[in-house]
Specification:
alpha+beta; Alpha-D-Glucose-1,6-Bisphosphate, Chain A, domain 4; seven-stranded antiparallel β-sheet; globular
């Protein structure tokens, strides 16, 4: 048996939607707040706020907050790649880098998420590899749910702790 690679993971989900709708869901404040985040702020490389419906660009910085978590829990990072149609990449704090690719496959769009450069010490294995895998599984499922049927599965109550929906 091969040793597990703790430095990266790959997740894929088929979504019955068009590539541009999926890309917009990932690449705008409005899109991300619809299925993923409570607050998704983007700033241009000059430091200006990016409008909520304008797609991100390379070198934009972000500040993200989640439903079900207090304001003190915030992720900050940078957009490393954004091609405007089917691929984007961003830094993800101490957890490495995340790449999103959208491609047609067998008559449906497949969203592929790769998280890499994850630290391989015990904290990296538990918090970033296992923890992020669990988190992304839920959020990719929620993206599919929102785009295919409109049902938002996120927990919005900060009083509910340790639930799989936040």
């Amino acid at each position: 048996m091969n040793a597990h690679d703790w430095s990266s993971f790959l997740l894929r989900v088929p979504i019955h939607s068009d590539p541009q709708t999926i890309y917009t869901a990932w690449s705008t404040q409005k899109g991300l707040e619809n299925w993923f985040l409570r607050t998704a702020r983007f700033f241009t490389k000059e430091g200006a706020d990016r409008p909520a419906d304008v797609p991100i660009e390379v070198n934009d910085r972000y500040e993200w907050k989640w439903h079900g978590w207090p304001d003190e829990v915030e992720e900050k990072g940078m957009i490393l790649e954004a091609n405007g149609s089917n691929r984007l990449r961003f830094s993800f704090g101490m957890a490495g880098k995340v790449t999103i690719s959208i491609a047609p496959e067998a008559g449906v769009c497949v969203v592929e998420l790769v998280q890499e450069e994850i630290p391989t010490d015990e904290q990296g294995q538990v918090y970033y590899h296992i923890g992020c895998t669990k988190g992304w599984l839920f959020y990719l499922t929620n993206l599919k749910s929102i785009l295919e049927g409109g049902i938002d599965l996120r927990n919005r109550d900060v009083q509910l702790k340790n639930v799989i929906t936040s």
